[in-house]
Amino acid sequence: MTPLLFSPIDLREVRLRNRIVVPPLHQYSARQHLPTDWHLMHLGRFAAGGAGLVFVESTKVERRGHGTLGDLALWDDAFIAPMARLAGFIREHGAVPGIQLGHTGRKARTSRPWEGDGPMPRTDENAAEWDAWDIVGPSALAYGEGWPVPRALALDEIPPLVSAWGQAARRADEAGFDVLEVHGAHGYLIHQFLSPEANQRTDAYGGSDANRRRLAIEIVESVREHWPAHKPLFMRLSIEDDAGWGPEQNVALARILKTKGVDVIDCTSGGVSSRVPTMYRALRYGYQVPFASQVRRDAGIATMAVGLIIHGDQAEQILQEGHADLVAIGREIMHNPNWPMDAAQKMGLATAFDQVPRQSGFWLESRARRGFGGVPSTWQKGMG
Ligand SMILES: Cc1cc2nc3c(=O)[nH]c(=O)nc-3n(C[C@H](O)[C@H](O)[C@H](O)COP(=O)(O)O)c2cc1C
Question: What pTM does this model have?
Answer without folding.
Answer: 0.96
